[in-house]
Design goal:
mainly alpha; Ferritin
Length: 254
């Protein structure tokens, strides 16, 4: 088990990077399996955006903490309880509506997060956030257009789109839970308190649901724990695949 970061700034950036990494890997699982070749390419590009965000966040976190780690150590040498990603992003791809609903929810959260983070007093973080916000603008539009197409399409596609939202909505409250780490980095001007992002998220989601003729799911008690290292069974299976090569051949040079 790797050491945990004692620098709150690094710990917070790693948390953001974890969610981007896991969702990026999930989207990469669609490669060669998407409904059309154009969407196959699009999903691969979305995955690459997220992996790029991960590398930038991890690299700066490692520089801040000064413990000799790098992004490969963070991605491939940590066990399941050491990851601090949101539970939403580790959920299986399911059908295409499930994937698009998951991505819409994440993008509607991540876009205002990065827009706010662009004002960080850390110039490197501000730069990462500015680039990431541009990417997430496209992610939000892409997922939103697909959910509109599915929701306002056939009876079957509408049912699947509605069911996808209903199944994933329990993971929404965790997006906006703020803990001591969030409050600490926000108070210093380094990071962002996620509890402030809910109005922007609601506005983005409601706009898509209205055009898609879908109903907003009833908000019940949410499922959380990802930021504390408590995950669903899906993450362990995913890490077993994602980390296999690095663990089989540690320190290999290509």
């Amino acid at each position: 088990m790797t050491q945990t970061s004692t620098d709150p700034r690094a710990a917070w950036l790693i948390r953001l990077g974890d969610s981007a990494l896991i969702l990026g890997h999930r989207l990469s699982e669609w490669s060669s399996r998407a409904p059309t070749i154009e969407e196959d390419i699009a999903l691969s590009n979305l995955a690459l955006d997220l992996i790029g965000q991960t590398r930038a966040l991890y690299s700066h976190a490692c520089a801040l903490e000064g413990q000799g780690r790098n992004e490969d150590v963070l991605a491939y040498r940590r066990a399941e309880p050491e990851f601090r990603n949101l539970l939403l992003v580790e959920q299986p791809n399911g059908n295409f509506a499930d994937t698009m609903a998951r991505h819409l929810i994440f993008a509607a959260y991540a876009l205002p997060l990065y827009e706010a983070l662009a004002g960080s007093n850390d110039a490197e973080v501000a730069g990462i956030a500015t680039r990431s916000a541009r990417e997430m603008t496209y992610h939000l539009r892409h997922a939103g257009e697909w959910m509109i197409r599915l929701g306002d399409g056939t009876a079957e596609s509408r049912d699947k789109a509605q069911e996808a939202f209903e199944d994933l909505w329990a993971y929404v409250p965790e997006l906006f839970e703020a803990d001591d780490l969030d409050r600490k980095v926000a108070a210093t001007g380094f990071g962002v308190d996620p509890s402030t992002l809910r109005p922007a998220f609601d506005a983005a989601i409601d706009a898509v649901l209205a055009r898609a003729t879908l109903k907003r799911p009833v908000e019940r008690h949410g499922i959380s724990g990802g930021r504390k290292g408590v995950h669903s069974e899906h993450l362990g299976h995913m890490l077993a695949t994602m980390q296999y090569l690095q663990r089989a051949y540690p320190d290999a040079v290509w």
